Write the structure tokens for this entry.
Amino acid sequence: MLSSQTRRQAINNHVIILLLFNNLIYELIDISLFLNYYRLDTVLPATQSLCLIWIFIDEALYSVSTITVAWASIERHILIFHNQWLSSSRRRFLIHYVPMMLLVSYIILFHFVVIVFPPCENRYDYTQEICGHQLCFHNSKLIGTWDSIAHNIIPTLTIVIFSITLLVRVLLQNRRMHRIVQWRKHRKMAIQLLSISALYLFLYIPYM
């Protein structure tokens, strides 16, 4: 996908490219820190800075993936049933690019503030993976509830609801219109989203 300019420029692939880059960063940093911990059986170097980086990557990039898949579930409806909304460069910028930029920026900023500048004092256990991962903001009724609802429950429900309705809409639309060429195009985008959504739900819901 990345080696083909045509595929890189295709709007329906932008979310997937974002997920690939996000997960690549996650794998390079988060998994490397996990492997180092399992090798040494301790966090090394045992510093607050390393703990903050590890926790930030683990929390923020997980949320970026969740929000991105949720947005993809919504955007596929636009791409298939309302593609006239993206007929101009201005519309594509406002409807396609701006939401992704705002969502990712918000997630990064939120986690940076609550992890690096928390409203309480974090405690780190260097004998545990991810330094114990006991962030004090999770104990805050307001911030903890917002984090759980906005970054886990709502995105997960969005993925489930919009993925199911997309499948139903595509099947009904093409049954009515009998457009084989259009069906092939829509089927590819629908299968692409449903595969990502199913994989996400299978891997991440058990850990929520």
About this structure: The chain has a mean pLDDT of 84.
